[in-house]
Amino acid sequence: MRNVLIIFKKQLRDTLKNKTVLIQFIMFPAMTLIMENCINVPDMPELFFTKLFAIMYMGMAPLTSVASIISEEKEKNTLRVLMMANVKAWEYLAGVGLYVWTLCMAGAGVMATGIPNDHIPFFLAVMAAGFIISIVMGACVGVFAPNQMVATSLFMPVMLVFSFAPMLALFNDKIEKIAGIFYTQQLRILLNQMTFDGINAKTVTVLAVNAALALGLFFAAFRKKGLE
Amino acid sequence: MADFALISAKCTYENGLFLKIICAQGLSEAVFDENARIKTDIFLFSYVFAIELLLILRKTRKTIAGVTRYAVNRAGFGNSVRANGNLRQWLLNALLCSVSFEPGSLMKSMKEFSMINAKRVCKSFGSREVLTGIDLNIGKGKIFGLLGPSGAGKTTLIKIITGQLAKDSGEVTVFGKDVNTLTGADKKRIGIMMDDHGVYDRLSCADNLKIFADIYGVPHDRIDKALEQVGLAGSYKKPAMKLSKGMKVRLRLARVLLVSPEIMFLDEPTSGLDPVTTKQIHKLINDQKDRGCTVFLTTHNMEEATVLCDEVALLNEGKIVERGAPDQICRRYNHKKTIRLHLKSGEDIELEHSGASASALEKLMEQGEIETIHSSEPTLETVFIELTGRRLDAEEEAQYA
Ligand SMILES: Nc1ncnc2c1ncn2[C@@H]1O[C@H](COP(=O)(O)OP(=O)(O)OP(=O)(O)O)[C@@H](O)[C@H]1O
Ligand SMILES: [Mg+2]
Question: Rounded distance, CA B141 to CA B136, Å?
Fold first, then answer.
């Protein structure tokens, strides 16, 4: 447990210096603030940008940052040094996951500034769940990819599908149908309703299946590759 | 040899019985050599325990002799010659200790014998045999150098000994324990620096060390000390990516020194560094040795091995082809004594280092033909070439491509 915190602290120290990861965390919350405050189209749905960007943030930031952090450590062989210092694989993964989740939640907190107060817990709960699934997917990529190059080429398509499908679904019925099987789309539908009452059997099933698939893939990748 | 005579004389005086046993088993020819590689075995450990127990219980010499006779028989002198030699030396050593020292000293000497022990270690990658039966024994406080051309399997052997890589067969013990059973506390006593191990580029030197200080539970003031030890005190806040290559190596060394390890594994600690940095690193390694640290390092550099190592092993094509103290090895191969001359005409000639060459040499000298003159003692380099028929720094890649 101590090692989880050490990894967490290490990542925190690295944050300000690691621009590629930092941008992931800042871009969407910043854009949300700007768009919500500057753009005012007459019959635009309420909190349109917040909801849109929240889902993109959820699909993008955790996935890409977890994958690049893990793959960078593999590429530079720093992960091996940690392992040799008797840091367990789960401690390392938990540390990185916790770190990314915390920063993402902070970003979500920034996004939530425009939301009415009584809806904020709901919003954060939805985001928290989405981040967790994305983090596991990012870990799949990170464990599977031997270096950053491979990681990027792997997470790009995954990230695009999860974060853009819900947006494209706005404009195209067919895409909307297909997108329904992704956790991001389900969480988007949920966000639109802004209440826990919106949760139905389909939401739960899709989320559960997505999460199970992500975990299954993760353990498969981990068994095959470990953290080598 | 002299030491042996001395101790054996003492033994004879103290207890003729032991020497009788030794002689009876043909142990008398064994040479008492401080560099003797001594085989340790569960069996031998039990023997030591038995002797210890008997000494503590103040049993008669007769009982001890009985146990020893049993041990000598069980040790199986019918095995290979090398094993015989080692076992004999070990038993001799053990016997001498047991008669001439206090109870307890035997176990202590046993412990100091072997920090790292490998037996018949084999490893293949696919069909390519990289290590074929490696035996090693490294004593406490020694600097051991594993030499060999690129691709000989040096890194592979370090990885196996440190438990990063599974061996196909054989046994490896560190601190007398199987590597795979080392606990977290044991691992804290081992410092490993592999040639490809990285540092956190964006973090400062101090932050890099802080992570590991936290993991090992070392107080943070050790960080300053470690950075100072490697001469990086001035780069405390510098991001690691702004360090030069030599500084990065030193930072990685600082990371190893953080825990004041009892064993250090250094994979090519000086490869690609300039002579000054190399010297600094040699000094660091020697400082660690003075502290009682056992060092296992690999290198391609024969000169480095000669000045730095107490003992070296030459690894070639998966086998250890020669081992011993560097000067000892060189002396062993000093059979072809020659003098090399470089003449003013630009010609290089080699003369036998004997009286027969005197007149030729005199003539050349009188004529003032000689530009330089060297007697050629074997170096580790020439020994290696003689043993393997190839140069150590020769490009090996082509052969394996
Ligand atoms: N993981 C691996 N899979 C397949 N072959 C390997 C692997 N690791 C090492 N080898 C092979 O084993 C041989 C020994 O490699 P090793 O890295 O131990 O050599 P080395 O003595 O450390 O060389 P160098 O001095 O260049 O570091 C090489 O031929 C290498 O190709
Ligand atoms: Mg190597």
Answer: 15
Per-residue pLDDT tens for B316-332?
Answer: 888 898 888 888 888 88
Point out the residue among B187, B201, B203 whose CB comes nearest to the CB of A13. Answer: B203
Q: Does A211 touch chain B (CB under 8 A)?
A: no
d(CA B218, CA A6): 13
ipTM score: 0.89
Pocket test for ligand 1, best of B123, B124, B134, B154 (most atoms within 8 A of CB): B154
Nearest CA to ligand 1 atom 5: B125
Secondary-structure class of domain B114-327 per CATH: alpha beta
Per-residue model confidence as pLDDT tens digits over B262-320 = 999 999 998 888 888 899 899 999 999 998 899 999 998 888 999 999 999 999 888 89
Residues of B in contact with A6 (CB under 8 A): 211, 214-215
Provide the CB-side half-sphere exposure for B1 (13 A, CA). Answer: 1
Q: Under a CB-based contact definition with an 8 Å cutoff, are residues A53 and A28 in contact?
A: yes
Q: Does A85 touch chain B (CB under 8 A)?
A: yes
pLDDT digits 0-9 by tens, B215-237: 999 999 999 999 998 889 899 99
pLDDT at B292: 87
Nearest CA distance, B238 vs chain A (angstrom): 13
For residue B125, count CB atoms less than 10 angstroms from its CB and return exposed for 0-12, middle for 13-18, buried for 19 or more: exposed
Checking if the pLDDT of B159 tops 80, the result is yes
- Quickly list H helices, B15-80: 16-24, 42-56, 61-74
CB contact under 8 A, A85 and B187: yes
Q: Kindly identify which residue of chain A lies nearest to residue B212, measuring between CA atoms.
A: A85
For residues B378 and B387, is the Cβ–Cβ distance under 8 A? no
